[in-house]
Amino acid sequence: MSSEGGTSTFIIKWINFLTVLIALGVIGFGIWMSSHTDGCRKSLTLPVLALGALILVISLIGFLGAWKNNSILLWIYLILLCLILVAILVFTVLAFIVTNNGSGHKVAGLRYKEYQLQDYSSWFLRELNNSHNWKNLKACLVKSKDCANLSKKYKTLKQYKAAKLTPIEAGCCRPPFECGYPAVKASYYDLSYRPASSNKDCKLYKNARTIKCYNCDSCKAGVAQYMKTEWRVVAIFNVILFFVLSIVYFVGCCARRNAASSCSKGR
User: Fold this and answer.
1) Confidence of residue 260 (pLDDT cuts 50, 70, 90)
2) Which of 6, 139, 173, 190 has a CB 3.0–4.6 Å from the CB of 147, allowing a cystine?
3) Which pTM does this prediction carry?
4) Closest C-alpha to 236, from 53, 27, 91
5) pLDDT in tens, 228-251
6) Are 95 and 238 spatial neighbours (Cβ–Cβ below 8 Å)?
């Protein structure tokens, strides 16, 4: 066995041992996400758990292949790792493309931004305008009580007007600012006024807890912004993961060549 090959085999053993620990951490984080978020915010829970499980399985195969100096296991390891790298690359590129469009619009007197659905990518428009998808999303938005909790977070009208609402709170719990409805208290507006805008969201908004602005395009835009932020974080994480796994893949190639060379010399 060459010293270079032996070094590669040694390195891949411990790289994959550390990767196993990282995989267990990713799985643990996925479980934490599942238990600490409502149905509306679980869009990345399953992918996180799946990614952790895949990294765990592949790392164990690579660790055993390097430990036993088994070229077959290392071939399987390298093929699976290559597929993971391709999948991460494709997902990351698509995630950056999908999240490239869309940003909030500043409104005078407000500390938060308002969001417009047409600003976002065609993928977001297609998914959020799908009646079946939005029905499920709307149901869990109502269940999450984001809007109902605003009156508990902001006891006075002054506090509410000075609040920095999240994209979902700004889009789903109140009518667009252009409607001109005066706020009575948190997430409750005086609808006796004639809308100052022709925006259809102005007529869709109701003070009822189960209605609010859940049927509004502004609500869909708020959800799109939340998803965009979530996807962008995952995309950045994937860039780092791709770089690290590429190094592991290169070392794995060295270890496989060493194992194959040892087998041929042993015959």
Assistant:
1) low
2) 173
3) 0.80
4) 91
5) 888 888 788 888 888 888 887 777
6) yes
Length, in residues, of the chain: 267
For 170-208, give the DSSP string: HHHSS--GGG-PPEEETTEE-TTSPPSS--THHHH--SS
As a whole number, mean pLDDT of residues 144-151 equals 88
List Cβ neighbours of 23 (8 Å cut-off, separation of 6 or more).
52, 53, 55, 56, 59
Structure tokens at 123: 């993928």
CA distance 198 to 106: 20
Cα–Cα distance, 99 to 224 (Å, whole number) = 9
Single-letter amino acid, residue 215: N
CB 21 within 8 A of CB 59: no
Measured CA to CA, the distance from residue 143 to residue 53 in angstroms comes to 30
